[in-house]
Specification:
The chain has 13 helices and 19 strands. Helix 12 packs parallel to helix 13. The strands form 5 sheets. The protein has a 6-stranded parallel β-sheet, with helices on both faces. It is an alpha/beta fold. The protein has 3 domains: 121 residues, Rossmann fold; 240 residues, pyruvate-formate lyase- activating enzyme (Alpha-Beta Horseshoe); 59 residues, Nucleic acid-binding proteins (OB fold (Dihydrolipoamide Acetyltransferase, E2P)). Bound molecules: 5'-deoxyadenosine (5AD) and iron/sulfur cluster. Iron/sulfur cluster binds next to helix 6.
């Protein structure tokens, strides 16, 4: 087998996977490979996979099977990401045409694994359970010129009973603050305007390294001080770790956006206990009330799972009522699917698919109604928009508010990459439509 000249990485799942793809792409480019236009023409094909729900896995399994049956043989095919961790070398039995499997904790080893696969012509796998903080983050090649994701903590120690992440991404490992600050400084100097700090649970940052004396809010304060830092976001949080200090940071740090992804998962305390979410509905609501008291203009996002084992109609109704009461700006709604290796897998997946789908539809309809009311209330308001690019219509510019709302408005190319104050006058579906209020705040 020859050294591949081109690569193509297909990414599934979350933002952490997207970032890992950017890091792998950087490593491959450093090695001399260039990006291929499509899957078919690539010498090296990598599937950076997701295991969070059944559907995500089935998509990849279908794709790998299809490739095995195809006539054209790629030089090399690899699987990375959560499925690599969940299935390890068992993937080789199912897909004999696969060349390597690389786990989420071994991205640094991509080059070594490639070498081994190329020179031994054998199937190679490397799937360490624990992440060592040895990644060259600075090598990442990013498509976007204004917005970048920066990893601050990997893994998860929470062990929610439905979730594969603690098994596929391992224990929490924080990245040293100096390393995060260095990367963010470089991004700001390169003209990036929005940085999203990533982790399965960013709020746990620093708890595994007490000697650093740097918890999440301390890190945020350091990042906010970087000259030219425009906007900081973070994804994702566990409600239990959202502290008063973090709430105060959102209120006080100018660059930190007033948007918190605050996933409740379910509205019934019995289901929350069964999910091992370690808070009750009442504790969650209290925390939301406190956050809204400290940061009155905060917007909230959530994740919700319907049809968790034994969820009754009345318990689902509690989730419905919480959604109605809290009025999230963004809600990601999922039907429960059992995942191998998780505690919930032992329980009977007893809610029929039709019931799960029907509950999902009811939540979606409610969320749509809430979204429309929220957009209605925004008419006449002036919001800060980071202008990202031209909209698909080629006429309007497109960007997002600090609270993550999509806005389009008329303007010219020179405004891309600037902050603009835009007055909202209407909306179309989920997008706000407005016009410029005044000139750029910063370039
Ligand atoms: N079934 C359905 N949804 C799930 N999630 C995690 N595991 C499962 C599962 N087994 C959802 C949770 C999590 C989001 C990323 O995916 O809501 O917050
Ligand atoms: Fe999964 Fe729970 Fe960890 Fe989130 S906090 S990644 S849902 S185990």
């Amino acid at each position: 087998m020859q050294e591949p000249k081109t690569y193509f990485i297909r990414t599934y799942g979350c933002q952490m996977n997207e970032l890992d793809t950017e890091i792998m792409a950087g490593q491959l480019q450093k090695r001399g490979l260039s990006p291929a236009a499509d899957e078919e023409s690539a010498d090296l094909l990598i599937f950076n996979t997701c295991s969070i729900r059944d559907l995500a896995e089935r998509k990849v399994m279908g794709k790998l099977g299809q490739l095995g049956r195809a006539h054209k043989r790629h030089a090399l095919i690899g699987v990375t990401g959560c499925m690599a961790m969940a299935k390890k070398d068992s993937l080789f039995r199912k897909f004999p045409h696969l060349d390597f499997v690389l786990g989420t904790n071994n991205i640094t080893d991509l080059g070594v694994v490639l070498d081994e696969a190329l020179y031994t012509q054998k199937q190679v796998f490397k799937t360490d359970d624990r992440f060592e903080e040895n990644l060259d983050y600075l090598v990442a090649v990013r498509d976007h010129k204004l917005k970048a994701s920066v990893s601050i903590i990997r893994g998860c120690d929470k062990f929610c009973t439905y979730c594969v992440v603690p098994y596929t991404r391992g224990q929490e490992v924080s990245r040293p603050p100096e390393s995060v600050v260095e990367e963010c400084k470089k991004l700001v100097d390169a003209g990036y305007k929005e940085i999203t700090l990533l982790g399965q649970n960013v709020n746990s940052y620093g708890k595994d390294r007490p000697e650093w004396n740097c918890l999440f809010h301390d890190l945020l304060a350091q990042l906010d001080r970087i000259p030219g830092m425009c906007r900081i976001r973070f994804m994702t949080s566990h409600p239990i770790d959202i502290t008063i200090e973090l709430m105060q940071a959102i209120r006080d740090l100018p660059s930190l956006c007033e948007f918190v992804h605050f996933p409740i998962q379910a509205g019934s305390s019995r289901i929350l206990k069964k999910m091992h979410r370690i808070y009750t509905k009442e504790q969650y609501l209290e925390k939301v009330a406190l956050l809204r008291q400290i940061v009155p203009n905060v917007s909230l996002g959530t994740d919700i799972i319907v049809g968790f084992p034994t969820e009754t109609e009345a318990e689902f109704q509690e989730t419905y009522d919480v959604l109605k009461e809290i009025r999230y700006s963004v809600a990601f709604l999922f039907a429960y699917s059992p995942r191998k290796g998780t505690p919930a897998m032992r329980w009977n997946d007893d809610i029929p698919e039709e019931v799960k789908q029907e509950r999902l539809q009811r939540l979606m309809a409610l969320q749509e109604e809430i979204g429309n009311e929220e957009r209605q209330q925004m008419l006449g308001q002036t919001v800060e928009v980071l202008v990202e690019r031209f909209n698909r219509d080629g006429k309007n510019l497109k960007g997002r508010t600090r609270c993550w709302k999509k806005v389009i408005f008329e303007g010219d190319e020179s405004m891309v990459g600037t902050l603009q104050m835009v007055t909202v006058h209407s909306y179309s579906h989920q997008t706000l439509v407005g016009s410029i209020k005044k000139l750029a705040l910063i370039d």
